[in-house]
């Protein structure tokens, strides 16, 4: 007698889990389809006229003495000039001067 | 009831993810702290440039400039925020059916960043030479600052101009020699 009353409840629970599981799997599939194919994004940290690969965490002197740093100058105006330095992972710096 | 509740939660989660994705996309399109309102119209010469020099090597990606008619090559950099604004101006010109008369040297410390820069601003529509480390333009023409316009004629560097506004640059280049 007890088995006949429990069976429909178990079936309903099983069906509910299956439905939610299908929803979850569908959501994951949709998310991977939308976001999985995106091109890599490059974060940029803006400081004056510098657009650095990483936000500055070291001094310009330290950055410029790393191996193969990329050092480039930019002009923010006729009077403000900056030097931007990128030297690999987590190593960026900048320095500015007024003429 | 639980199924309806679960579905509502799922829809809300999807909406939040979509909202953040849209915010991220919008944020990535902002040109940093540079804007048209803050853009200066000054165009002035770069004194360190090797004026009169004919580069020993010329990148195949750039058009040859052997005629006496001046042609402009812009020097931009992925590390330069002002260059983001200049690239956006070029993008707007090209999207509006104009522009296309300039070439670009894109100095970078990382080729992938250069590819990303070009993709974001549609610079594939222009002749672009990716100058890793800025070695070519630095060593051949003495230019290590951006944004700079190289005015070339007969294969030689006639003048190098610092600028921020592409329209102001065009006006300066169009002026008779000696005025700029």
Question: Could you give a quick summary of the protein structure above?
Answer:
The complex is a heterodimer of chains A (99) and B (180). Chain A is built from two helices and five strands; from the N terminus they run αββαβββ.
Shape of chain A: rod-shaped
Radius of gyration of chain B: 21 Å
Beta strands of chain B, count:
7
Residue share in β-strands of chain A: 25-35%
Number of helices of chain A: 2
Element pattern of chain B in H and E: HEEHEHEHEEEH
Assembly status = heterodimer
Order of the strands making up the biggest sheet of chain B: 1-7-6-2-3-4
What's the total helix number of chain B? 5
The coarse overall form of chain B would be: elongated
Main beta-sheet annotation of chain B = 6 strands, mixed
Largest interface: A-B, 36 and 40 residues
Q: Helical content of chain B, roughly?
A: 25-40%
Distance between the termini of chain B: 76 Å
Can you walk through the features of this model?
The complex is a heterodimer of chains A (99) and B (180). In chain A, 39% of the residues lie in helices and 26% in strands. By secondary structure, chain A is of the alpha+beta class. A 3-stranded antiparallel sheet of chain A has the order 3-4-5. In chain A, strands 1-2 form a two-stranded antiparallel sheet. The radius of gyration of chain A is 28 Å and the shape is rod-shaped. The mean pLDDT of chain A is 82. With 180 residues, chain B is α/β, with parallel strands linked by helices. Chain B has 5 helices and 7 strands; from the N terminus they run αββαβαβαβββα. Chain B has a 6-stranded mixed sheet with strand order 1-7-6-2-3-4, with helices on both faces. In chain B, helix 2 (81-95) links the parallel strand 2 (71-77) and strand 3 (103-108). Classes of the chains: A alpha+beta (99), B alpha/beta (180). The interface between A and B is large, with 36 and 40 residues.
């Amino acid at each position: 007698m007890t088995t006949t009353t429990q069976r429909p409840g178990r079936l309903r629970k099983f069906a509910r889990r299956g439905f939610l599981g299908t929803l979850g799997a569908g959501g994951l599939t949709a998310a991977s389809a939308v976001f999985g194919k995106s091109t890599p994004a490059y974060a940029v940290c803006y400081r004056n006229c510098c657009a650095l690969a990483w936000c500055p965490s070291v001094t310009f002197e330290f950055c410029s003495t790393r191996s193969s740093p990329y050092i480039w100058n930019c002009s923010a105006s006729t009077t403000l000039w900056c030097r931007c330095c990128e030297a690999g992972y987590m190593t960026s710096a900048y320095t500015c001067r007024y003429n | 009831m639980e199924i309806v509740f679960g579905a509502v939660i799922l829809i809300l989660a999807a909406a939040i993810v979509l909202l953040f994705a849209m915010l991220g996309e919008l944020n990535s399109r902002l040109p940093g702290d540079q804007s048209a309102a803050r853009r200066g119209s000054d165009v002035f010469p770069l004194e360190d440039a090797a004026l009169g020099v004919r580069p020993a090597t010329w990148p195949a990606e750039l058009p040859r400039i052997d005629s006496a008619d001046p042609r402009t090559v812009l020097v931009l950099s992925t590390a330069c925020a002002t260059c983001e604004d200049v690239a956006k101006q070029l993008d707007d010109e090209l999207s509006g059916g104009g522009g296309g008369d300039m070439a670009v040297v894109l100095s970078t410390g990382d080729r992938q960043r250069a590819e990303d820069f070009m993709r974001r601003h549609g610079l594939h529509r222009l002749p672009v030479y990716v100058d890793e480390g800025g070695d070519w333009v630095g060593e051949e023409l003495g230019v290590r600052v951006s944004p700079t316009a190289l005015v070339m004629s007969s294969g030689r560097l006639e003048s190098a101009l610092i600028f921020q506004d592409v329209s102001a640059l065009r006006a300066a280049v169009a002026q008779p020699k000696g005025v700029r």
